Amino acid sequence: MIKLLNAGFERLRKNKIFWLLITFTIGLALILIFTQYSDMKEYNEVKKIEQLILNYSMMMGIVIAIFTSLFLGVEYSDGTIRNKISIGHKRINIYLSNLIIIAITSLFSYILFMLLISIIGIPLFGKITISISTLLSLIGCGLLMVISLSSIFTFIAMMISNKTITAIVSIMLAFGLMFGALICLLNLDRQEYVQQGSLVNGEIKYEEVKNPKYPSEKERKIYQTLLDVNPAGQGFQIAGRIANVKILPFYSLGIVVIFTGIGIMLFNKKELK
What we know:
Distance between the termini: 24 Å
Largest sheet: 2 strands, antiparallel
Number of helices: 12
């Protein structure tokens, strides 16, 4: 396992995709700081630094999907996995070493973004307005969310031998998770009562009526559970600072265990061409 990790991190160090990821992370942080600071000065808006710190959480699914598919996707086409097996490495170690590399790289990108926002942003936007314990809890949920996303996209990359198909499936899934999360958020944000206008004696009068699209209590629980289980949904909640920090870590850990367990089992049976 140690040799696999050393070889993997050495390949990572020389890989253009890794340095593109780092460049993207730094660039995104600087652009966000610049645009938000400009808006604050021009429109006299109040910007909370903790919102900027956690903003990257919403994008991690797409970022990890692209990085994983491009970095691991070549392992089959280049014959890397076949070579690892032929020199005696166990399949479980190959799978886990790839997962660890993807997870650590993704975590590094996530933490780097938060550090840059904090170091540059706090002098510009002011101090953090929520308690440190709350912020750390949200960051902790974010770190576990990143690991869960890493396990999902490592699973896809290890199951599909074609790099192009891996990239397509991973990116489509990342956007699908975001779309599903947005649907849940849309339904949870519906107001129970809405204003309805009617014409009475030539005048429009408004009255408050029950919203027919307002979900029932049971439906709201279903939408909330789907949002919590979905890593993209977790990302939106973490960025919005509305995450249930007592529940989300368990869902993230569950995703890691399920996808890694099934992934190792299937990879052990996979025929290499």
